[in-house]
Amino acid sequence: MQRAVTISLDAMGGDHGPSVVLGGAALSLSRDPSLRFVLFGDQKAIDAVLATQPALKAASEVRHTEVAVRMDDKPSQALRMGRRVSSMWQSIEAVKKGEAQVAVSAGNTGALMAMAKFCLRTMAHIERPAIAALWPTQRGRSVVLDVGATIGADAQHLVDLAIMGAAMARIVLGVQTPSVGLLNVGVEEIKGVEAVKEAGRVLREAGMAGLDYRGFVEGDDLGKGTVDVVVTEGFAGNIALKTAEGTAKQIGGYLRAEMGRTLMDKIGYLLARRAFSALKARMDPRTVNGGVFLGLDGIVIKSHGGTDAEGFSAAVDLARDMARHDLMSKIRDMLEHTPAPATP
Amino acid sequence: MQRAVTISLDAMGGDHGPSVVLGGAALSLSRDPSLRFVLFGDQKAIDAVLATQPALKAASEVRHTEVAVRMDDKPSQALRMGRRVSSMWQSIEAVKKGEAQVAVSAGNTGALMAMAKFCLRTMAHIERPAIAALWPTQRGRSVVLDVGATIGADAQHLVDLAIMGAAMARIVLGVQTPSVGLLNVGVEEIKGVEAVKEAGRVLREAGMAGLDYRGFVEGDDLGKGTVDVVVTEGFAGNIALKTAEGTAKQIGGYLRAEMGRTLMDKIGYLLARRAFSALKARMDPRTVNGGVFLGLDGIVIKSHGGTDAEGFSAAVDLARDMARHDLMSKIRDMLEHTPAPATP
Fold this sequence. Notes:
In chain A, helix 1 (18-31) links the parallel strand 1 and strand 2. The model of chain A has no long low-confidence stretch (mean pLDDT 91).
């Protein structure tokens, strides 16, 4: 029997609020009728959407909140105005109280991370949280972390990232012993930073049961899907993620521009439109929507703020998988069997 | 009258040696007959190629060398075996001696940087060298640096990168006052590293004549071409560069796979092949081949090792532009008018 999963949703998060959040939840529910939801936000706005979604209404409990964190609120502002009272805070707190196994919000990343840290605190043995992204690759998907939760990393943090990423990859990729690489630069002379080298030494020598350490990887290995889990410090990881998104948009722009230039191109485009749709689907950022906050004492998933119901439902599905396959226990198990890096 | 330019070439560098290096030089010469070359490498191998390239032969002087640095030599190895005697070293030394205004090599990056540093030394007021890349964007091209010469950067180094990048952009982009951005991460909570913030403060307050500082940019601004010059520390820069290359390859792979799936797709592909060729040309890494070593007392250009004659000629053309428009003087002029950042 599948484990029942209750998901708390920040109905006010994202550029479009309840319509997209509840629309996405309804899609996920139609694929998995065992889901249950706790919805936090403006009761009137939520009820208006639920009136058109009877199945979702039957599977949900609504909790009215007065305050909604705005997309441009700074984390400090969000905490000051929205602590305890906002839909964002309460959806996280539901995880802390055990009313839900996982929270999903499309609200702003900085505010969500600040509240998640404040409310849930970091888990035992973990100093700092991370955000893990699903990265589409030529082979399928990889888990890449940290894509922007914390800047700078010592060896211990990188080893923690490897463990947490591997635990997540076991669930989302269905691989028992995920391959793990440390993101580094290939220029011979410099050979990367000390922390990366030291983390590599620990991962190589520890021989951890739950992951298969494969050494250093470079930026172009991300798209190749060379390893299941790519570990990097948050500054470089955030830049890599956004660079890849930008490059994909850039090439999409080139393609559109070139395809409309002559009549022959346009006819060719029409004939090959199945291929273009398939390409578009493979490049669709909605299918890999959902940043997983790791290292906190509870699971929180961040959806893109600008996504639609389809995209939000991908984040909800991801949340369900993380909860159903008990990400937290998987991480805790692996952490218990980890040696500490040498103190510098 | 155009300034005459003599370029020293490491004829043994790259995966293919003299055939590609001299083939590329011949292409550049056919576009600009005023060029002169000093060719360093195995006399026999060079003569064999020159026999088929009379114009290049007439424009070149050959200097025989016994030692060639291999593509997999470590920098320390290359220095030990190849200092003073290798084609790579001597092509750099020709710049030092004033026999050439710029050197081009397709040899391995680590060895080339080690030799260039050892032979040319860093220029006055510059602590560490950098590698600048030309980045294809939706608007055209940008200069991005550092893409892997040195890891880590303090505010002073980032300001130096901004100045050197702007000097280069004035030449390659033909913009009198290039716009400059500092690569940073957008997550509100963390707001980037101290060095980046301090460099931003200096650039904003200094109001330098030769550049237009526009603030922070993120990874996706690279492909957009938001600014003419993107400044970043070498670790993140190298990862961004390789991530973009990997993403472009990944999408190219998707496109090829999808276009061959059904007969209709194939016909569509044939009809629109002009558009696909144009797309391929826009994504062709050969057209932006050439990493410029900056901060040394002389100009050295690194070509991709695996490129063909067409690609190598792009690096030669870039070298010619850097020399003809006197990159070194442009950098020196700007450095003289730069305030120092606050010491932390």
